[in-house]
Specification:
The protein is built from 13 helices and two strands. With 299 residues, the protein is an all-alpha fold. The protein folds into three domains: 77 residues, no CATH class; 75 residues, Cytochrome c-like domain (Cytochrome Bc1 Complex, Chain D, domain 2); 84 residues, Cytochrome c-like domain (Cytochrome Bc1 Complex, Chain D, domain 2), CATH 1.10.760. The protein has a two-stranded antiparallel ribbon. Helix 6 packs across helix 7 and helix 10 packs across helix 13. The longest helix is centred in the N-terminal third of the chain and has 27 residues. The protein starts with a helix and ends with a helix. About 12% of the residues have low confidence.
């Protein structure tokens, strides 16, 4: 009984022990919290009280958004020519990645071997000027000849060729014009032409005006024969064939304005791709005339 009685007694036997236990119950949690706060406070802070709001820090954070290389570009600076791989991805891959319209796929050495055998100059000429279903400059008339040549070299070298990267030639015509302007003598009383020689001659009678519609139709037919026939003549790459009323029925229902926009700006359809202006450098009015000519044959 005596042992059991002692075991059941509390650990706290005196008032001092009770006070110490109460103080420990309060102080231990408080000290723990203080230590945790100090530990967290010693880490790097990104809010108030740090340098994260300084002008330098803010400028560094927003730099990728506010300055991506276009802000200070000089519009009058020479054009930056694209690399062959970039031109291929943006233009040529539409056909040469999948083999559409009979285009040789990049990396297919068998399909490229005969073409590579024609030589560098021939391939560049075909790429720049177009051949059969291949539109001039891949359908992007804004490309420089050097960019087109680089794309051709990139594709050919990926398919077994060993062509060298084309060199950028200086604009000799601009230099020649500048030299001519510098060499031309200024007009003086001694070398000025006599008044009688400078007098304008009577203008020749103006030719009789021709019909505007007839001129537009002729321009449309010429553009079709030089550019559009490459695809619309045989229905290449999903292009509706010339004169096929069934293939053109739904397209004509869209209206002339839609057809004009697709022909001028280019269009990616379900069955194929229409390059801008058929890959030609024709004016918008000439393209519209060609659309009218093709549409008239499908009605």
């Amino acid at each position: 009984m005596t042992d059991a009685h002692h075991e059941s007694q509390s650990v706290i036997r005196t008032p001092k022990q009770l006070i110490a236990a109460v103080l420990a119950g309060f102080l231990v949690p408080i000290i723990t919290i203080v230590l945790l706060v100090q530990y967290v406070g010693n880490t790097t802070r990104v809010g108030a009280g740090s340098e994260s709001q300084s002008d330098e820090a803010i400028a560094e954070r927003i730099k990728p958004v506010s300055d991506i290389g276009f802000t200070f570009r000089d519009a009058n600076a020479p054009k930056q020519l694209q690399a062959g791989a970039d031109v291929y991805k943006g233009v040529c891959a539409a056909c040469h990645a999948s083999g559409a319209a009979g285009a040789p796929k990049v990396g297919d050495a068998a399909a490229w071997s005969a073409r590579i055998g024609q030589g560098y100059d021939t391939l560049v000429s075909h790429a720049v000027n177009g051949i059969r279903a291949m539109p001039a400059k891949g359908g992007n008339p804004d490309l420089d000849d050097v960019e087109v040549a680089r794309a051709m070299v990139y594709m050919a070298n990926q398919s077994g060729a060993k062509f060298k990267e084309p060199e950028v030639k200086a604009n000799s015509s601009a230099a020649a014009s500048k030299n001519e302007a510098m060499a031309a003598p200024a007009a003086t009383p001694q070398n000025a032409a006599p008044a009688s020689a400078a007098a304008p001659t009577p203008a020749a009678p103006a030719p009789a005006p021709t019909s505007t519609s007839a001129t537009a139709a002729d321009a449309g037919q010429k553009l079709y024969a030089s550019a559009c026939v490459a695809c619309h003549g045989a229905g290449v790459a999903g292009a509706p064939k010339f004169g096929d009323k069934t293939a053109w029925a739904d397209r004509l229902k869209q209206g002339k304005d839609v057809l004009y926009e697709h022909a001028i700006k280019g269009f990616q359809g379900k069955n194929g791709i229409m390059p801008a202006k058929g890959g030609s450098s024709a004016s918008d009015e000439e393209v519209k005339a060609a659309v009218d000519y093709i549409a008239a044959a499908a009605k």
